[in-house]
Amino acid sequence: MASALDAVRDKAEVKPGKGHKSRKTRTIAIASGKGGAGKTSVAICLAWSLAESGRNVCLVDVDLGLSNVDVLLGLQPRYTLEDVILGDVPMDKAITRVRPGLDVISGGSGAAALADLDPTRRNQFLSRIKSLEHYDFLLLDNAPGIHRQVVAFCLSAREQIIVINPEPTSVTDGYALLKVLRQNGLRQPPYILVNRVQRGFDHATLTQRFAAVCKKHLRAVVLPLGAVPNDPAFQQAATQSALPAALHPQSPGISAVTRIASLLTRRKENEALYSNVEGFWTVSLNTLFQGLHLPSRVDSGSAKEKRGSIQDVLSRLDQALSDLENLTRTPSGTITLPPMAETEAARLARFGDRLRRVTETWNQSS
To answer: Which end of the chain has the least Cβ crowding within 10 Å, N or C?
Structure first.
């Protein structure tokens, strides 16, 4: 029996007209049940590996107001997805070229803005995303956790990669994410990728047990995508705001992601893997606005749940500010600015302006 999601997709999917060549783009949502799984590093390296194999790839950061793909890559995009959604900026202006075959779109708070669009702005946004039709792969780096935006993007994508690591809490939260997706109509089997695997750990057994639990309790099949070792090259690249593959192309982690990219490119079973890009975004918007079955701690249906969601974002923001303070404070307690501080200070100032606007909006509505 077709699910409500299938009905929305069938209605929203853009059909090619006579003489129009249908685009074939594989849209893959990358998600994790909690933070710390290394999802963004995997997304960046996977995008690079797919581009290295000759594919045309666009990595879109759809994190909720805390996008960090551009930070990890040392990019300073002039425009973000937020500017496309809320302003008059064409989509191609928000695209940043990382290397031949690999583009990045920074999120800003674009994922959150999608849920607040009126019909006119929704149509304007959909008319602008047609410039993404030429990509072979559209990779979506979601926010960590189980939020409305995460669920909507995962359900709308034709393929999903759930990233977990060997920690029990990561495995449990990965299962919880898959459970919510199944409750909301996910039928195709998602990929499971085990990240940050320590030397000697039996990741194959972990994947088998995870798959067995999903089959027993959720009646869900999962597709093992392999494992990525805990590679210091990833942490070093993040510190230097660079592509890990550019610094250490032969490192164990990069080799593992390259194998995963090869597995994905070889999977060409049927047309169900491909989607029209405009159709994907249409389904995403419709899914955001329709009723989703979410755990009470993350659903935004009531005032109490909204406060919980706000507290979660504020907690993450507080941690980010603490990390920034630690970067600039010496052991003696004095403040020492790192190299390129002027440039980073400009970005921090823009963040401050956005926070001030959000605070003013809350004060006006209270």
So the answer is: N
The Cα–Cα gap between 69 and 48 comes to 13
Indicate if the alpha-carbon torsion angle 38, 44, 47, 52 is positive or negative. Answer: negative
DSSP H helices, the chain, are 4-12, 39-52, 69-72, 81-86, 110-114, 119-128, 148-156, 168-183, 203-213, 232-239, 244-247, 252-266, 277-289, 303-328, 341-365
Tell me the domain boundaries of the chain.
23-289, 303-365
Give the pair of three-digit tokens for residue 31: 């998600």
CATH number attached to the domain at 23-289: 3.40.50.300
Residue 106 burial (C-beta neighbours within 10 Å; 0-12, 13-18, 19+)? buried
Residue 214 has pLDDT above 70, yes or no: yes
* pTM (predicted TM-score): 0.75
Q: What is the pLDDT of residue 220?
A: 95
